Amino acid sequence: MVDLAVIGVGLAVFYGVISIARTWFNPVILEAHISLSPVALPIYAGYSLLRIVVAYVFSLTFAVAYGYIAAYNKKAERIMIPALDILQSIPVLSFLPGVMLAMAALFPRQQLGLELGSILLIFTGQAWNIAFSFYSSLKSIPRDLKEAALINRFSGWQRFIELELPYSAIGLVWNSMMSVAGGWFFLMVCEMFQVGQLQVRLPGLGSYLQTAANAGDTGAILWGLGAMIAVIVLLDQVVWRPVTVWANKFKFEETESASVAESALLNLLRRSAAIAYCQSKAIAPAAERVRRFFLLPGDLLERPREPGPAKKWIERGIAVLVLAAALYGVLKAAHMVSGLASDEIHQIANGTLATFLRVAAALVIGAAWAIPVGVWIGFNPRLARIAQPLAQIAASIPATGLFPVVLLILINAGMIGAEGKLGIASLLLMLLGTQWYILFNDYRNGNGRRRRMERQHRSRIRGVSRKSAPDHRARGDNRRCFGEFPAAVVGDHRDGGNGRDGKPIGMAAPISPRRDEIQVGSLIPM
Length: 526
What we know:
Number of strands: 2
Strand order of the largest sheet: 1-2
Shape: globular
Number of domains: 2
Radius of gyration: 25 Å
């Protein structure tokens, strides 16, 4: 029965992917008809899910390559890491014109151009977080593991497969969960948007929610949010839960944890004879052939690597091109600024300051509750089994899908004036797109510290009496407080980018013909 279920699900998924992908090669349709009937939600969910999966594959490939180069190339690291920080702070809508124009030029008559454009927009909301995670994992590999790989004469491929990738697995899994949640969060913007005078609408959950919001159909909005939550819960139980349990075998620990997470689906798959047969007859032989292909001869392993003159000139040429591009960008920006009137410059300066203050305030408010709650969840395994999927669902729900409900509440509460200016109420809308990275990072760090404290307690020397033993409970609060500082910094760093990323959406909520006039977010055209 297990094998029949696995084969049946596999064939159904394969058929669904092929059926949806075939529509990508049809003639281009700029404005697809979106039915607000709940019956259409399953096919729309399939469209959106396929886009997010393809975008995640692109994001993971980019993140591994980018993080690897930045971690092992000192010269490139000085440019790539600041550039990554800038890229993760750029709003998704800022990539919209360039991405869509490029895809329309490559595929002018096929739907594939619009689909790839939407996928790349989702990619811009996923890739940066995974790249930061992989880079930081590579930089934190212990020296003794690196020396062991050197003593065993690992090739670059062996070191990547058997050391670097396993050591980074847990971080990649957790950050992948948040990155996919970010893809769902910006789904409405990536499936229904405007480029110049062209209105683009692709079939999917995002365009369904956007169409329902524009029509003021509260029932359709609730149906769309329900379908999205159902897909997210299904992904959590079918994909992320088994992958998280599987990744636990890569923990770098000297002793076994007291509590071991389990997945019923993973246990079921491990008992499948069909999967075991494919593993032994196809996957394992192919992996062995790839490993042998990348093995280096002994003389190459012993030979020290010295950069040749050609490599040095290539690096210098790349550096010159980068500097020339940067200088060109500075000159173009200066030329554009010189053409602005003093009132426009004053407006941009005020908008920049207002944006900074709002993002900073949103980070402070988010950290005020996310840090203690994340620590509390991390130190309570039973609570984590319930709270972690709920937090993932909350992080995945598009803020724009909740805007109509939130705005009605704010208007009734008198927090939005008659002119339509949000003011302080904009912080509430921004918090819908921030705070989750802080919560997830502090939960993960708190969970790791709990396991380390349990191992220290179990490995305590038996000869030490209770009176002379250190008081772990007395110092527990300080440990938890200062131990969460790195995770809080990482979460604030990523959340700052997410806050700026959601700024154009949060600050241009369509509550009246007028829009807030003193923030950078609202200056970006919707």
